[in-house]
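Thread: quick sanity check before group meeting

JM: Hey all, I'm pulling together slides for Thursday and realized we never actually wrote out the predicted structure for the chain we discussed last week. Dropping the sequence here so it's in one place. If anyone has concerns about the input, flag it before I start.
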Amino acid sequence: MKTIVQLKLFLFIILSLFISVPAYAVDLMPFQVGTWSEFDKHDSATPQNNWTVYGETLGIITIGTQNYFNVGVWNYKPGDYREIPFRSTENAAYIHNGVSEELTWQIAPVGTTWSNIQTDGQRIREIISIETVTVPLGTFNNAYVHRNYSDPDDPTQPNSPYWYEYVVPGMGMVKEVDYYTDNNPPTVSELARVGVVPEPIIHDTNSDWSIGDFELLNAIDDWASGALGDFALLDLIDFWAAGCYHWDSDSQRHKQGCEATYQSIDYFPLETGNTWVSNSGTVNISGETHTFTGGTGIRFNNIGGFCMDYDVFIADSQNGIVMYGVYEDGAYQDFNDSFIILPKSLKVNDSWNIIGSGFEAQLTFVGLDTVTVPAGTFADTLKIRIDVEDVEDLEGSYGTYTTYFWYAKNVGLVKAERTEESPIGHDGCWSVTSENPVDELQWAEVNGVSYGK
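JM (edit): ok, ran it. Output follows.
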């Protein structure tokens, strides 16, 4: 049964990766290397967990005498990654499962049924209807609804629950409803965004490159001659307008590019009454304020929450999310110049520094990440690395450490993890030798929404 489940994970996004080719394309799946798509996905938990599934056509591979498009899929289940070979004809789509080729989807009359032999049974597929379906990307009026289930060899074992795939000719799969999952069924996935990862017009050895005016004009000429597709041209125009594009090796280029900007206030809610409970304690916003040299901050009451045993005063300023001071041992401590927790806007690889009494720190926005903690699964969190040097602990000794923080949109800090320190056991309850080297959000009440309760 597990083999069938794993293969189903691969197949979810494959059919959606090629919709950059117009709907009059000959093949059921009009493949193109570099096409990518994103699905908005949620489960049926209360509250429901939401995340983004991303897929990209990575290249062409040959198995035996047959060519296949190699497709990468990220986050079908949060945090996983798979690759699968795929090919298409006018009315059918096939995968290679590592042993043999399978007919996966086809355009055929309602009632058509077929099966694929698996190591522990059969996968049964049936076209049950042709429907109109609406997803975030748009409305499609000719979706072939494929109903699937697993029929195990063992006659004492029941058939699996169904999962349904909505397949549009010349477009691909636009929706999936999955009852055959251990992740709070059913999960619902809907096509939301598509695009093409453009090849650099001028190749160089740098990880960053810019699209200038002349390169854009050349791209327009290529588009006019039919050598460049519509979506590719639109992406290039976006990159030209942004002024740069980060070429990343992990196939997350469309997200990791310098055109992507994130506003820190979206990841640091400041409403009175917001409460976060982590492994180490509780943090809540009381509504009290205090004015320091740098400005007026909102009080965050800490009862050990995320390893803080003092209250901090934070504000959304012109510089971003800043800390003006703390309240500890019955007294206010003024930081004079505010500490920038998160700049006003961030792009991947942005760094900033904090210099305080007895320490220096460099913070870096290393990228987006999906994390699962007791409060839920959070996609596209901002992953921040902090490297601290010359920090003085309570005994007066000095050391260094590296800690990562994950901030979820509309939620705030959901995870912190100390990964390195010297000497071992130095400074704070997040020490790698402490009970909480990883501190995770257990539950929260943020802006009227509950997580993990």
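AS: nice. Residues 2-196 form a domain with the YmcC-like fold fold (CATH 2.40.360). The chain has a mean pLDDT of 78.
JM: adding both to the slides.
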